[in-house]
Amino acid sequence: MKKEIKKAKPAAIPMDSTSLNKLKWLLALIPAAFAFLLYFQTITFSYTLDDPTVTKDNRIVKSGFAGIATILKTDYWFGYKNESVRGAVYRPMPLILAAIEWQIMPDNPAFYHLINILLYAILSMLLFLLLYNLLSLYKAQNEPLNLLFAFITTMLFVAHPIHTEVVASIKSQDELLCFLFGLSTMLFTLKFIESNSIYQLIPLGISFFFTLLSKESGITFILLIPLMLFLFTKSDTRKILTATSILVILLVIYLLIRSQVLKSIPDNPNQNALNNSLYAIPDFVSREATAFYILLRYLFLLIIPHPLCYDYSFNQIPAITLSNPLAIISLLIYIALLAFAIINIRKKNILSFAIFFFLITLAPVSNVFMVIGSTMAERLLFMPSLGFCLALCFMMIHLLKVETIKVKIHDIKQFMSAYSTVLIIVLFITGIYSIKTFSRSNDWKNDLTLFSHDLEIAPNSARIHFNYGSVIYSDLYPKATTKEQQKNTLDQAIVEFKKAISIFDKAPVYYTQLGQCYELELDYPNAILNYETAKQLYNTPYWPIYKELGYLYTKNGELEKSIHNSDTALLFTSLYHDTIQASIYNYLGFAYGSKGNLPLADEDFKKAIKLNPNYGEAFRNLGTLYYMKSDFNKALEYFNEACRIDSNDIESINRIGLSYQALGNVEKAKLYLDKVEQFKKQSN
Questions:
Q1: What whole-number distance in Å separates Cα of residue 95 and Cα of residue 679?
Q2: pTM (predicted TM-score)
Q3: What 3-state class would DSSP assign to 58?
């Protein structure tokens, strides 16, 4: 029997070094430029979602360069909301960048968005160079194909709509920096392997350390880099061990620093059922089944990135059991992926590396091995999506038999012509991706556009209903010009807050926001009811609740309850600014005055003024107290102080007129009372 003679695949014609270098850099610049143009519209966007936590609401970031030392030795949330929110998260690198950005252009969201786009563009260029270098080591004899593989993968990655949240959200600079420094670490590792210079370990180590300081998921590179070296290079074991040892040493140093910084910090406050519905699932098996169902949804979003949503928290993804077919299908798919990757690892299969990259980077955020602070999030697919893009590129090149193409290539025109078939397909896919990305990024224009759009995508999310109600209350209500518009806006916000509570009734802030809306509608009984509910939901006394209840009970005529809540608020506000305690003393003074206890009212109003000498309302209340005691000259003194602080204080102006009237000074009384009438006419 004659042996079948196999035809050898045509080898690619080698490129000269000059042409290769020019084409390489041109192909590296195309994805970078594409990334910039794709997200250029976000420069005009405002802050959205969590952006204020690392910008305008972060007092350390707003210190600029002066805040960097504090950032390095405190947790991620230290500067946000006067330290009322803390958590065991250590990510100094994105906060340092935010502080530098603030120093250069304070409170300028356009500048932050521009930096995001530039980071994404630089990242895409680094990705292309890394993939090209890897493939050159893997298949040194086929430079055009290596360029093609790197180019296609990078273009697919840049265009993928799943990255919209990361690029459009300022807060996600942690994701961008983590991946950017991770890719840099991989590149520097390759340089170390290719050279005989020990000095290459310096940039390698710096990049990896910066990766860890950017986000905790950077730890995955300690597995990805040895895997990369094994699959793509022929380096000796000694060099691989040396590079890996440096990574391990730096990881230990990072963990020691992190533990020291966070030693007195409580667990991450985001670890609760509201942020991750898996915390609400009591049994381990159902929790794992739900986690695998989420992993299946991740795969669907990578293949068909529609619809996209910024929030998947409670109760958008309901709990499922292991008997659910989707959980079983997901489990089988992931077992099959892992088995394929393990079986083919010795063959140094690129598809095996793509799968490992996907699984390794997804593992820490999968909720399978530990329950994290999010049920599901598109930003968590930022790094894992590279594995998908690698696999997609590999399959296209393999199925179209691109490796068999034998051409002579010197420039970009010949490159595009030689690989026209596969590039047309890539152009079609990236075109579809780009349309979706451009459309989706436009949703991130501001909070109102984002929340209103995503409410339709995730109607069962308590957080989206709450966020939408909050933006109606904070943004739309102040812009309402008539009482009817104000009432309609508040009613709309109330509907959203009630929907949020109907889905998740354990979040105290939901009730306080609802209470504020009722307060503005002068519905004090409902406002009190919601604040009292919120008070019960806090694990420890929360002074703003008591402070507000002190005011509301006064307005509702329940003076003893007002005094009790105000006194309680004072117990927990000693560490806060004097103006806070001043307002509480003002409420107490009003309550005691309403009860007829004028000496105590006088004492509390004066305490308020002592703490805050520019507290116009306290001066007005004290003036009213002396008016009630018929000490009109003293009343005038305090009313005039109130007007000094606020010349448009129409109530104090009116009481000045009444005081002069009581003193028999008709001329001055008329002067001030006429001002009041004139003001009323202008208001109408």
A1: 49
A2: 0.91
A3: strand
Q: What are phi and psi of 482, to 5 degrees?
A: -120, 160
Torsional sign, CA 215, 216, 217, 222: positive
Residue 198 is predicted with a pLDDT of 86
On the 0-12 / 13-18 / 19+ scale of CB atoms within 10 A, 572 is middle
Region for residue 577 given its phi and psi (left: phi exceeds 0; alpha: psi -120 to 50; beta: otherwise): beta
Which string of DSSP letters, residue by residue, matches 524-593?
A: HHHHHHHHHHHHHH-SS--HHHHHHHHHHHHHTT-HHHHHHHHHHHHHT-TTS-HHHHHHHHHHHHHHHH
pLDDT given for residue 236 in this prediction: 80
| pLDDT given at position 94 | 98
**Torsion sign, CA atoms 14, 16, 21, 22:** negative
The residues of the chain scoring below 50 in pLDDT are: 1-11
- Secondary structure (3-state) at 80: strand
Count of all residues that appear for the chain in the document: 684
Cβ count near 571 (within 10 Å): 10
**Domains defined for the chain, CATH in brackets:** 18-437 (no CATH), 449-641 (1.25.40.10)
Structure confidence by residue, pLDDT tens digits, 345-403:
988 899 999 999 999 999 999 999 999 999 999 999 999 999 999 999 999 999 999 98
Q: ∠ at Cα 435 (434, 441), nearest 5°?
A: 80
Give residues with Cβ within 8 angstroms of 572, minimum separation 6.
Answer: 541, 542, 543, 546
